[in-house]
């Protein structure tokens, strides 16, 4: 019988660790990456997808391995470690908002807690644990949907125009379509000024040609990083960069900074990130940064 | 009736004509960089740019010319100083030192402003003064840490690379390799400990780029250093020519070898540090430019240093033009990649032709 108490989860993906924590499985995490949230700090570090500690993984005897694999698939070495442990590898691509929703909805089943009658639901599971996980998953998804809907309403009231989302100013690196932030911008009703996919490097001249109506510099940070001083620092960086531009965003002073601990982490914090992005876009109207 | 013998072409005049040809090629590249454009996802075109874009392009051209010239001149000095055709400016550890300076500054800045952690240790406990450094980086960018790191590495290499009170070619190369390797190891350690956002900042700097927006004062300093380097090379040309034949020959014609080596070592280090401060570590330009000029215009140092300055600027400008024109669908490709991709084959061609090694 599969029970939550029997789970031993090793996560090689901070985003998937976040998802497990959101479902109330933080205590079941026995191995983590160096960049996982502080709530699982007691679990030993087992490395990352490209640099994992096989010996430590074997000692920890996880029942499940959480990974965000590259398009080329999981490294054979990790696959062989998982096989020798008899551990289930849960591999998910987390590129956009829908990927996050899909992971949160599927995670209970992937951990072996299938709903009765579901495909592969022959595994015997503890009914109360299954119900608990299903409820946690439903509640997190509901919260995400509510936050994104609220963010949409907020953005609709202050159309920010074509927004350029940057994550670095020198060199200029941007969130294109299909990136997590690009996707989130679309989900809350915004328009990405950049049609290119992924995380392209741009020249300053490219930014001049794109002529965005607003530019938002998105940075990731720890809890203290959202403090005023950190935002001031990034605002200064953005201002220095924008000095060379003559585009609608600079003419109207629509330059914003979004500092969020999960800015680059496609996970259950997507609802909070949507709210923060909407607040930043709204603040551009007022010419102040949301804090 | 026998026709009168043709006057033999003056070799010096021929050399300078070829240097002038390199200058003409450089001018053509300047025009190309100013007028040619290819928007991402669009087609290439040629036209007079609007003012805002013109300003960006002029800055990029000025940066490419000054950095390329500095690297070219530094390459000539080092190849002369070390009597090693494979010497290039970063052999003195300048690139490694600048990289380490930038890495440390970014790590401090990250911890000081992002409130994030390096290896799980949050600032300021682990990094006293992190906020101060973060503030300095915010105000001054990465120029200062790159310059400090580059010059510190240079000082260490020159201090370690002496024998009997003067820079020794072999000891300098070995000291440069050791200092570069150690700086590289610390950079790798810090990168390993860094979270994703910081890691990508570090990786972006390490590739090398031609800035379209840079503090004018910095460009003035690098340009002035490059011009001073050319003047110094022209003034020391005869001494450098004599020194290439060996210590005894140089002494025999009265070349103050120790002073020459000190001058070339310090000058090449400063030029490389200035270049890396503006553009990050850009490979091959300092190696290829002198060889290219030697193969065209001979090995005499006075014209060589002028030609290498022009060729260095031309190579870097060509790489920057390729960055504007080549669109593989994933955004702009960093100039440092083009410089290495183009510089490698050019160097191999020169090597195969057996020319350019004076």
Could you explain the architecture of this structure?
The complex is a heterodimer of chains A (291) and B (358). Chain A has 291 residues and is of the alpha/beta class. Chain A is elongated, with a radius of gyration of 21 Å. With 358 residues, chain B is mainly alpha-helical. Chain B has 14 helices and six strands. In chain B, strands 1-2 form a two-stranded antiparallel ribbon. A two-stranded antiparallel ribbon of chain B has the order 3-4. About 4% of the residues of chain B have low confidence. The interface between A and B is large, with 47 and 44 residues.
Give structural attributes.
heterodimer; A: 291 residues; alpha/beta; six-stranded mixed β-sheet; four-stranded parallel β-sheet; 14% strand; elongated; B: 358 residues; mainly alpha; two-stranded antiparallel ribbon; 14 helices
Shape of chain B: globular
Series of H and E elements of chain B? HEEHHEEHHEEHHHHHHHHH
Task: Tell me how many strands of chain A there are.
Answer: 10
Radius of gyration of chain B over alpha carbons? 22 Å
Strand count, sense and closure of the main sheet of chain B?
2 strands, antiparallel
Task: Note poorly predicted spans of chain A.
Answer: none
Category from helices, strands and their pairing of chain A: alpha/beta
N/C terminus separation of chain B: 41 Å
Q: What is the helix/strand order of chain A?
A: EHEHEHEHHEEHEEHEHHEH
* Low-pLDDT windows of residues of chain B: 114-126
Let me know the average pLDDT of chain A. Answer: 86
Q: What fraction strand of chain A?
A: 5-15%
The main sheet of chain B orders its strands as 1-2
Helix/strand/pairing category of chain B: mainly alpha
- Major sheet summary line of chain A: 6 strands, mixed
Number of E-state strands of chain B = 6
- Specify the helix fraction band of chain B: over 70%
Task: Quote the average pLDDT of chain B.
Answer: 83
């Amino acid at each position: 019988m599969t029970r939550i108490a029997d789970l031993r989860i090793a996560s090689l993906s901070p985003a998937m660790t976040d998802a497990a924590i959101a479902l109330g499985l933080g205590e079941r995490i026995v191995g983590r990456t160096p960049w996982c949230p502080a709530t699982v700090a007691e679990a030993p570090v087992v490395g990352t997808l490209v640099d994992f500690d096989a010996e430590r993984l074997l000692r920890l005897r996880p029942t499940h391995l959480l990974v965000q694999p590259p398009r080329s698939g999981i490294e054979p070495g990790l696959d062989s470690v998982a096989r020798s442990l008899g551990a289930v590898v849960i591999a998910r691509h987390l590129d956009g908002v829908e990927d996050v929703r899909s992971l949160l909805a599927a995670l209970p089943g992937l951990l072996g807690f299938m709903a009765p009658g579901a495909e592969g639901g022959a595994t015997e599971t503890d009914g109360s644990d299954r119900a608990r996980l299903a409820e946690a998953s439903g509640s997190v998804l509901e919260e995400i949907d509510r936050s994104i809907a609220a963010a949409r309403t907020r953005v609709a009231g202050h159309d920010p125009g074509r927004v350029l989302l940057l994550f670095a100013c020198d060199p200029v690196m941007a969130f294109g379509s299909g990136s997590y932030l690009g996707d989130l911008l679309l989900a809350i009703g915004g328009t990405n000024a950049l049609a290119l996919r992924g995380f392209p490097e741009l020249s300053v001249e490219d930014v001049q040609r794109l002529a965005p109506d607003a530019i938002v510099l998105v940075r990731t940070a720890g809890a203290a990083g959202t403090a005023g001083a950190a935002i001031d620092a990034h605002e200064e960086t953005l201002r220095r960069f924008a000095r060379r531009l003559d585009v609608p965003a600079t003419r109207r002073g629509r330059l914003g900074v979004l500092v969020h601990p999960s800015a680059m982490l496609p996970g259950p914090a997507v609802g909070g990130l949507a709210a923060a992005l909407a607040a930043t876009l709204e603040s551009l109207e007022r010419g102040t940064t949301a804090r | 009736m026998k026709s009168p013998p043709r006057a033999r072409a003056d070799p010096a005049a021929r050399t300078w004509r070829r240097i002038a040809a390199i200058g003409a090629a450089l001018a053509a590249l300047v025009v190309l960089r100013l007028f040619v454009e290819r928007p991402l996802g669009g087609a290439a075109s040629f036209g007079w740019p609007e003012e805002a874009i013109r300003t960006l392009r002029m800055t990029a051209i000025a940066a490419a010319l000054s950095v390329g010239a500095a690297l070219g001149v530094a390459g000539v000095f080092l190849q002369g100083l070390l009597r090693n055709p494979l010497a290039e400016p970063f052999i003195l550890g300048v690139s490694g030192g600048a990289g380490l300076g930038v890495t440390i500054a970014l790590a401090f800045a990250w911890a000081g402003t992002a409130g994030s952690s390096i290896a799980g240790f949050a600032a300021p406990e682990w990094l006293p003064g992190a906020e101060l450094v973060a503030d300095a980086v915010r105000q001054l960018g990465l120029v200062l840490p790159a310059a400090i790191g580059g010059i510190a590495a240079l000082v260490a290499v020159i201090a370690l690379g002496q024998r009997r009170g003067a820079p020794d070619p072999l000891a300098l190369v070995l000291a440069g390799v050791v200092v570069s390797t150690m700086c590289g190891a610390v950079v790798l350690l810090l990168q390993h400990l860094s979270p994703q956002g910081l890691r990508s900042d570090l990786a972006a700097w390490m590739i090398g780029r031609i800035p379209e927006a840079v503090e004018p004062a910095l460009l003035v300093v690098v340009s002035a250093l490059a011009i001073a380097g050319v003047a110094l090379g022209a003034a020391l040309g005869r001494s450098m020519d004599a020194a290439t034949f060996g210590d005894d020959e140089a002494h025999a014609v009265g070349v103050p070898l120790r002073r020459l080596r000190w001058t070339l070592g310090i000058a090449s280090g400063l030029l490389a540090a200035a270049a890396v401060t503006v553009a990050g570590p850009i490979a091959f330009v300092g190696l290829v430019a002198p060889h290219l000029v030697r193969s065209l215009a001979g090995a005499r140092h006075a014209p060589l240093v002028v030609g290498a300055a022009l060729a260095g600027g031309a190579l870097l400008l060509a790489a920057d033009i390729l960055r504007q024109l080549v669109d593989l669908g994933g955004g702009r490709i960093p100039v440092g990649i083009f410089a290495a991709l183009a510089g490698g084959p050019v160097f191999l061609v020169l090597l195969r032709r057996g020319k350019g090694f004076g």
